[in-house]
Design a protein that fits this description.
Blueprint lengths: L1 H6 L6 H17 L4 H21 L7 H15 L10
Length: 87
């Protein structure tokens, strides 16, 4: 990945930032109360990947990220919401 990022003119340590964001998204997705934030972060990461791959004319490589973005919508509907308690 470092070589690809360098070839695509990303900063030298960008792969570390990308990895940290991906791990953060995964951690948020694992916690029900933070899941919506995880979905939003994962969507932003996938969108950035699609834009980057399109800019590099790697259209078929972008398909999995596009599928992920489509799958995040129904996942967002499964986020537990608190209902107000009437006492």
């Amino acid at each position: 990945m470092r070589e690809a990022y360098a070839r695509w003119e990303f900063p030298p340590r960008f792969y570390l930032v990308a990895g940290l964001l991906e791990v953060t998204a995964a951690a948020f997705l694992a916690m029900p109360e933070m899941r919506l934030w995880g979905i939003a972060l994962a969507g932003l990461i996938a969108f950035g990947a699609v834009v980057t791959l399109f800019n590099q004319r790697r259209y078929l490589s972008a398909v999995p990220a596009i599928i992920l973005m489509v799958a995040l919508f129904p996942a967002s509907l499964a986020v537990p919401y608190e209902t107000p308690q009437v006492h």
